[in-house]
Amino acid sequence: xxxxxxxxxxxxxxxxxxxxxxxxxxxxxxxxxxxxxxxxxxxxxxxxxxxxxxxxxxxxxxxxxxxxxxxxxxxxxxxxxxxxxxxxxxxxxxxxxxxxxxxxxxxxxxxxxxxxxxxxxxxxxxxxxxxx
Length: 132
Prior knowledge:
Elements: H1 2-22, E1 41-42, E2 45-46, H2 59-64, E3 65-66, E4 78-79, H3 109-129
């Protein structure tokens, strides 16, 4: 009997006891530290670093092409055409300041659209001030 219990003791030490000790370790291993820079964490997750976009300095390209118009990896930017090839209404667009409401004609559609937009903006600001 003694030899039989000794065999059970040895079997227990070799097979059963080590597996009991490892039962508590069913969690994932810690990740190895990354060799690259650590990203800072903000309120919404890691902060993405801004990409520096190269600025075109070639004067010939700036005069003849619309730089940045090609968003695909292949191809090139749109070439600028002579003014005669563009429609006439393009040259009448207002690219200056926004015309104030006082200077607009009250009988025009643009006046009433602007008035409605300003009223909606004012109501939204006032609704933000209300508690409930």
